[in-house]
Amino acid sequence: VGIGTDDPDTNLHVYKASAGSVAASSDAQLVVENDGVTAINLLSPATSHGQIIFGSPDDNDAGQFGYDHDSNAMYIKTNGSSDKSFFVSNSGSVGIGNTNPDFNANATNLVVGSGAGNQGITIFTGQNAGDYGSIYFADGRADGAEEYRGMITYEQNNEIMRFHTNTVEALELGLNQNATFAGTVYIPSKLEHVGD
Question: SS3 for 146?
Fold first, then answer.
């Protein structure tokens, strides 16, 4: 069936204008085409949700992608669960495994974990020397030092963790947990004795 076209690409083709020399994917049963911004608009009451639901013979709502108009939040559900595994609050904070990611205002952009049991983040890299897992702290995007003012890196194979401040390596922790400091190490004038 074609709407706006007498030459539909698939089962239902809604056509406003040509997107160019492109044909619909063979996997698609619905195509919406335009020569500019192309959109599907889901309209629902202000206290309800708009959803796209994914199902199979085993579970007719195995996955959901939705928008809650009452709280102005977006979410994803998986594996038929009623829990929201990915959540974006009305302030733009993102929660993974958490539907209330508005924590401390200085660190609320991304919250990972439900607050129960073990939670964590894994950085998965190659296994060779020179393959790094990294966290960068930036204060600009000028393709220079602004993009890596601070860094925490872990080099695989050599098994070295490094901490950088002001773009310079400040501390290196080696394979045998030996620490190498780049600058001066300040020790308090009075050290308390701990242990035997």
Answer: helix
Q: Is the pTM of this model over 0.70?
A: yes
**Cβ atoms of residues 109 and 95 within 8 Å:** no
> Taking Cα atoms as reference points, which of 66, 89, 69, 67 lies closest to residue 77?
66
Contacts of 173 (CB under 8 A, 6+ apart): 160, 161, 162, 179
The Cα 183–Cα 176 span in angstroms is: 21
Residues 101, 107: Cα–Cα separation, whole Å: 10
User: Do the beta carbons of residue 141 and residue 147 sit within 8 Å?
Assistant: yes
pLDDT, tens digit, 9 for 90 and up, residues 55-101: 999 999 999 999 999 999 999 999 999 999 999 999 999 999 999 98
Pairing of strands 179-181, 160-165: unpaired
Beta-ladder partners of 160: 155
Q: Amino acid identity of 179? A: A
